[in-house]
């Protein structure tokens, strides 16, 4: 049943995706973007937050388990890379791999008992996990404690995953991250596992009665989601060159995973990108425009926008796009009597 | 032994305050199945109301609790009218996210207007008074807040249990459509529940500037602890939330004193996880 679709040649959706990726890859060639490091910064953040949201989307959207605990995995990834560079003075790459593995293991250990909880009880349990990790990392001397880790100056390049002069290197890394995460989710969407995951979301009992091992499906989705979130965290710290517990392991960071995905549209491939493409420029430009007006003005506007979007369009920005395209389609049809 | 008792007493008084903060959240959650993420920020706003009344008009927090309660009653009712009402029937997280936006708005509005400075009222009626009870030292402001908490939580519990309004609230919580058919104006019930839920946290915020500093971030941790109280107590159960709040206060104090101050929240959240792993719907949940 699954096989024919699985083997189908590239579909229209994939072609659009590939065209988008090619477009994004050529973007730094434009001087308007490459010479303006603020625009570059916004683009990098869009790609990073789209990847983070897509990682969350695996378990939160397709799997229907709304986790507010992803900043823990994000933080573990960030600390993996950070400690490899700062504490052990090496290349971040082994740290990134170890961070991803650790995040997956931690995710399974935490989620196994948490998956027995439902609704708000699950959500609050994941809040609790974030707070516990936050405090532990604050006093854990080995990982740098409350002081955090500050990056030393090392040779720039791909080996150290660090650039100083221009942001183009970071941009391409973010693009690779983005294509990787979206590619994985695109593959899962049509793979047997993706169908199992959605079946579990729609009705766990029904799925089990058809022979789906729902616990195994949810746990592996969580592990994958956590490992990808850790990868995003590692990129974040390489870009930020500093990490401390409140920066990565906080409820605010967790909320960003959820917000971007839900505002874009959960359980859809395009949702995380749409959410990030709207939310991140809003956040960065309100900060740039009104950040100087006095503390908090940018966040006041941001909070207001969140309320308006949630109230006006529950299907997220993806829903708005669908509405518009439907309206255009109707006009085209009615235009030809 | 005396130290242990003293720590337990402090924890219990703190727990009573948590109960007062949590009872409104519990009521809202129980009736509407909505987590109000801005609950902690309501508390913060009420604390500012009480602080400014005390600072500018020299009104004691003991009187400002009325102003705090009234102010947050209106804020709560407005939140329902302008935000929550529009999320009914939409994905379950809509209300949580919208109120997260509201929390962000309120927090940064206060940050913008009142700066991030810590503010505390001096020379209030209760001040730093304490009295000796055997070997224990009892702080008067905390004790007063505790008694106030007992009174308010008791009143809310009585109201839901034994008044016509309370029965209407229970009926609405069980089945909104059926309640509507029985002639209950459920829209009015929702507005009042949100208002009353806000008023209780407003009362808590009203008394707190006597002994706690006010700043824009003060609500976040109280809000989070209130979520934990309510979830640990069990879906919308007021006695459950009350019991959970006392437990959390005591565990927090013991963890903070005997392990390390930074671990007190680890102990609190660890307790929540332990309870829900044993009883996935909370202590009194079903």
Helices and strands in order, then pairings?
The complex is a heterodimer of chains A (337) and B (286).
Chain A: H1 3-7, H2 12-26, H3 31-34, H4 37-62, H5 70-86, H6 92-114, H7 119-139, E1 149-150, H8 168-190, H9 192-202, H10 204-209, H11 214-240, E2 242-243, H12 245-248, H13 251-264, H14 271-290, H15 297-312, H16 316-335
Antiparallel strand pairs in A: 1-2
Helix pairs in contact in A: 4-8, 4-11, 4-13, 4-14, 5-6, 5-11, 6-11, 8-9, 8-11, 9-11, 13-14, 13-16, 14-15
Chain B: H1 2-32, H2 39-57, H3 61-82, H4 94-114, E1 130-133, E2 136-139, H5 140-162, H6 164-174, H7 176-181, H8 186-207, H9 218-233, H10 238-258, H11 264-278
Helix pairs in contact in B: 1-5, 1-8, 1-9, 1-10, 2-3, 2-4, 2-8, 2-9, 3-8, 5-6, 6-8, 9-10, 9-11, 10-11
What does this protein look like?
The complex is a heterodimer of chains A (337) and B (286). Chain A has 337 residues and is mainly α. Chain A has 16 helices and two strands. Chain A has one domain (3-250): ABC transporter involved in vitamin B12 uptake, BtuC (Orthogonal Bundle). Chain A has helices at residues 3-7, 12-26, 31-34, 37-62, 70-86, 92-114, 119-139, 168-190, 192-202, 204-209, 214-240, 245-248, 251-264, 271-290, 297-312, 316-335; strands at 149-150, 242-243. With 286 residues, chain B is mainly alpha-helical. In chain B, 72% of the residues lie in helices and 3% in strands. Chain B has helices at residues 2-32, 39-57, 61-82, 94-114, 140-162, 164-174, 176-181, 186-207, 218-233, 238-258, 264-278; strands spanning 130-133, 136-139. In chain B, a hairpin with a 2-residue loop joins strand 1 (130-133) and strand 2 (136-139). In chain B, helix 2 (39-57) packs across helix 3. Chain A binds chain B through residues 66, 113, 116-121, 123-125, 127-129, 131-132, 135-136, 138-139, 251, 255, 258-259, 262, 266, 294-297, 299-300, 302-307, 310-311, 314, and chain B through 29, 33, 35, 83, 86-87, 90-94, 96-98, 100-109, 111-112, 115-116, 224, 227-228, 231, 260, 262-263, 265-266, 269-270, 272-273, 276-277, 280-282.
């Amino acid at each position: 049943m699954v096989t024919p679709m699985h083997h189908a040649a590239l579909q229209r959706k994939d072609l659009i995706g590939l065209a988008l990726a090619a477009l994004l890859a050529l973007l730094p060639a434009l001087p308007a973007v490459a010479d303006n490091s603020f625009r570059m910064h916004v683009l990098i953040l869009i790609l990073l937050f789209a990847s983070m949201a897509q990682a969350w989307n695996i378990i939160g959207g397709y799997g229907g388990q709304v986790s507010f605990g992803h900043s823990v995995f994000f933080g573990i990834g960030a600390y993996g890379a950070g400690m490899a560079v700062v504490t052990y003075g090496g290349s971040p790459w082994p740290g990134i791999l170890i961070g991803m593995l650790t995040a997956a293991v931690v995710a399974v250990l935490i989620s196994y008992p948490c998956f027995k909880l439902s609704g708000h009880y699950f959500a609050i349990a994941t809040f609790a996990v974030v707070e516990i990790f936050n405090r532990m990392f604050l006093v854990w001397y080995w990982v740098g404690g409350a002081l955090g880790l500050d990056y030393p100056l090392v040779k720039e390049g791909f080996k150290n995953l660090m650039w100083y002069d221009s942001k183009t290197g970071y941009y391409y890394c973010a693009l690779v991250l983005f294509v990787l995460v979206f590619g994985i989710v695109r593959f899962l969407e049509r793979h047997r596992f993706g169908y199992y995951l959605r079946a579990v979301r729609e009705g766990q009992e029904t799925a089990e009665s058809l022979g789906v091992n729902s616990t195994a499906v949810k746990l592996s989705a969580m592990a994958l989601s956590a490992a990808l979130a850790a990868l995003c965290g590692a990129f974040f710290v390489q870009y930020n060159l500093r990490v401390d517990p409140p920066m990565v392991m906080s409820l605010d960071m967790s909320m960003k995973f959820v917000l971007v995905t839900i505002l874009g549209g959960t359980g859809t491939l395009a949702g995380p990108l749409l959410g990030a493409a709207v939310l991140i420029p809003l956040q960065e430009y309100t900060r740039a425009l009104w950040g100087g007006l006095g503390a908090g003005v940018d966040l006041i506007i941001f909070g207001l926008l969140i309320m308006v979007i949630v109230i006006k369009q529950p299907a997220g920005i993806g829903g708005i796009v669908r509405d518009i395209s439907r309206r255009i389609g109707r006009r085209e049809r009615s235009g030809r009597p | 032994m005396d130290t242990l008792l003293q720590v337990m007493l402090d924890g219990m008084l703190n727990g009573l305050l948590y109960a007062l903060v949590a009872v409104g959240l519990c009521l809202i959650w129980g009736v509407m199945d909505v987590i109000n993420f801005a609950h902690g920020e309501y508390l913060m706003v009420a604390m500012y109301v009480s602080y400014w009344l005390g600072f500018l008009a020299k009104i004691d927090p003991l009187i400002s609790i009325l102003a705090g309660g009234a102010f947050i009653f209106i804020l709560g009712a407005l939140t329902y009218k302008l935000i929550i009402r529009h999320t009914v029937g939409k994905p379950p997280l809509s209300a949580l996210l919208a109120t997260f936006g509201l929390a962000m708005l309120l927090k940064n509005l206060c940050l913008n207007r009142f700066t991030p400075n810590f503010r505390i009222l001096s020379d209030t009626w209760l001040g730093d008074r304490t009295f000796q009870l055997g070997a224990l030292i009892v702080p008067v402001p905390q004790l007063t807040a505790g008694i106030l908490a007992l009174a308010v939580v008791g009143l809310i519990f009585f109201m839901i249990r034994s008044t016509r309004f309370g029965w209407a609230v229970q009926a609405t919580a069980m089945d909104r459509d059926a309640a509507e058919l029985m002639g209950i104006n459920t829209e009015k019930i929702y507005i009042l529940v949100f208002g009353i839920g806000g008023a209780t946290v407003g009362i808590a915020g009203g008394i707190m500037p006597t002994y706690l500093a006010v700043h824009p971030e003060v609500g976040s941790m109280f809000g989070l602890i209130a979520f934990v109280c309510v979830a640990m107590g069990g879906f919308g159960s007021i006695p459950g939330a009350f019991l959970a709040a006392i437990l959390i206060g005591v565990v927090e104090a013991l963890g903070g004193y005997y392990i390390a101050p930074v671990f007190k929240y680890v102990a609190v959240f660890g307790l929540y996880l332990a309870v829900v792993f044993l009883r996935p719907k909370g202590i009194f949940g079903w």
